[in-house]
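Contributing new complexes? Match this layout with magnesium ion.
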Amino acid sequence: MALLEIFDPKAAPRPIGIDLGTTNSLVARVRDGKPVVINDCNAVALVPSVVHYDPRGRVIVGVDAQRLAVDFPRETIVSVKRFMGRGADDPETRRLGPYEFVEPKTPEEAKSVRFKVRDRAVTPVEVSAEILRVLRSLAEDELRSVGGAVITVPAYFDDAQRQATKDAGKLAGLDVLRLLNEPTAAALAYGLEKQKNGLFAVYDLGGGTFDVTILLLDDGVFQVRSTGGDSALGGDDMDRALAERLLQELGVPAENRPRELVRLALDTARKIKHGLTENDRVEAEIEVPGGTRKLAVTRDEFEALIKPIVERTGVACRRALRDAGIAADELDGVILVGGSTRVPYVRQYVEKLFGKPPLCDLDPEEVVALGAAIQADILAGSKERADEVLLLDVLPLSLGLETMGGVVEKILPRNTTIPAGARQTFTTYADNQTGFDLHIVQGERELAVDCRSLARFVLKGIPPMPAGLARLEVTFRVDADGLLNVTAKELTTGVEQKVEVKPSYGLTDEEVEAMLMAALDHGEEDLEKRQLIEARVEAERVVLATKKALVADADLLEGDEERTRIDEALAGLEEAIRGSRAAIIRGRTEVLDDVTHGWAGRRMDRAIAKAIAGKDVAAIESTVAQARGVEAHLAEHAGQSAPEGDASGTGS
Amino acid sequence: MIDPFQTLGVEARFDLDPDDLARRHRDLSRALHPDRYAGAPAAERRLSLSRAIEVNDAFRVLKDPIRRAEALLRRAGVPVGETAEPKPSPDLLMEMMERREELGDARRRKDLAAVHALADAIRLREREVLASMGRQFAASDPDTTKLAAVLPELGELRYLRRFLDEASAIEEELSS
Ligand SMILES: Nc1ncnc2c1ncn2[C@@H]1O[C@H](COP(=O)(O)OP(=O)(O)OP(=O)(O)O)[C@@H](O)[C@H]1O
Ligand SMILES: [Mg+2]
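Output block (do not edit by hand):
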């Protein structure tokens, strides 16, 4: 059996779930209906998120890289997740490690931090892709063929950080089905294993980030009520606090510390911290210039050091409760996630904060990957689960536009359920203004300079007219991954202008393609092969879905004519799939998409009616009656209806 | 603009049961969410995204009494939005100014209890205004010409809401 599985060249692709952590990463999958983590040959699942670049241009990831970190601190990137989506001018980055950075030469380059390692410039996206590649090959060793992947991100990640994570997945050759919030993944793992319903708080203290999420688990629907946290708070901070104490004890002056010694102190601190989880007192030895020194730390001392760090989590928790509109005693349970929740002091603090002992039945370091595997399984079409589970996530931070005086106008407030959309109209503030400067920001502060800048673009070519006459309509759309897409158009001129902007601190699709090509041995040729495979996979998916629907929903077809058109398009696509030209396959996939469009809308209306049926009989009729054709719907979404804006701000 | 009541398939009335509304949103999401269409053709995925957005948007509007009232008025052809509505009464403006001064004082004194007390009083008043609006909306059915009478209370509600937003920002500031 096992042999057959290993040598089956046509093994069906299996979906995987990945927890891409600051400190550790791991991959899991669903086997026989149960999520399990995938181990390496040493039966270890955790891969330290450490990447080393060696002098011969090789890349080493994981435990081996971790060992090299002490001797080669600048050539070894740790906690790369903290750099994801950060711009080159971000002052925070200097504080985050001993690295050298490449000075950006163009505004494009300035969008992302770039590490300088051995005269190479690497972006956090590329470093993360190295970690993902290792996880992918771990999964391939076990599954032969890896299908789509769900990658988790902290709920608190903003648009730039999410985009960067998705790019890293693409760069690692993964088909990223979905980005999933870590706490939601954790709750998914708990909810399904233990069949829980109720209100929960997920408290996730990892290596680099803290997240708290208030979740409602209700009849299979996991709904995020609110989320909060701090993207720069975690076990690393405990390590730093303890290392600082150790260095002081060793009498190393703060002004003149060799980087290698700092790294060594951090490593020692972490070991002591782990030891203190089980023991009241831990001794350690540290090599310093001039010999070995012995140090000892008690748990009480450690707890005094981390008290302020742990208390910072309380602020975020209280805010999340307030945002969800609930009191701590209304919670049915608190779920612990992240390695740092092993620290006894953290558990005590959580218990005190929420007034009840937290749940910790599942391994806090595995639970996120397990949940991601479940979600990947659902998205890949696992029948048993698809009808039971749905995740409704929310926007972690408000999205807005800079208006006059640098003030932010919020377009979509934080904790809005996603996917979400909003439209706002703006007008000119000066006579004869011919352009709009649009600045898209994310964050809660009132002034644009205090928020994260996502993108800027200019809408030009507005004919001169008096102030206040031009009408600029800006549309924000956030998809289920939490990724933003903005379009803008000027309404009065009759000439519609459309600018589409995908805010990104990651890479453009072209850049990812180019990098992928460079990584392959026979660039062009391999890329063509890849494109053919991808086109076939998508086409086969469309064929399968269409055939299934023809069986289930044939009665919704409008006459034989529609049926004939679909049958023809289907036959054409199947013929193309047997051929070997990606462009033709893609073209005919589009044709099939086109001719099934109207029918798809009617099927969706039926799904809606069904969803409501049984719950509220009176309303079914009205819903069925109002099930407008898809045409009407699309027309509305093409923005041909009257603009809804009564909130007209001022373009800056 | 798409009618949010129609999108969610609920009766167009002011006193909707929040639990019913949430349940309806959940059931519709179950049918429409893009995750349900992860394996579907691209066109269907796009369609599901648009409709899920529409459903979430409608839910957001109907959950919020101010926006729910606006949606009802818009349906009936009554112009809404602060520039279209009648000016608030001088009494209300005066009173809100005084309350906000008290709020500012409490903030300067870092008196969290006083901020809570001020917010509680306004919340109580918000509940009263909402109840009264519910009665007015009910009375204007089917004679929608009476609807304009709701406008002053809608205006008041906006002031109360702004006050509460400010208060909660101060509460957050003082308790962190
Ligand atoms: N036994 C233990 N006692 C104390 N701390 C521990 C223990 N085991 C792991 N940790 C700490 O947990 C942290 C890593 O946790 P985890 O692997 O959950 O983080 P991560 O998921 O990589 O990070 P993040 O969630 O921030 O992205 C490290 O700071 C590590 O030192
Ligand atoms: Mg984690």
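Reviewers usually confirm one structural detail per submission. For this one: The radius of gyration of chain B is 20 Å.
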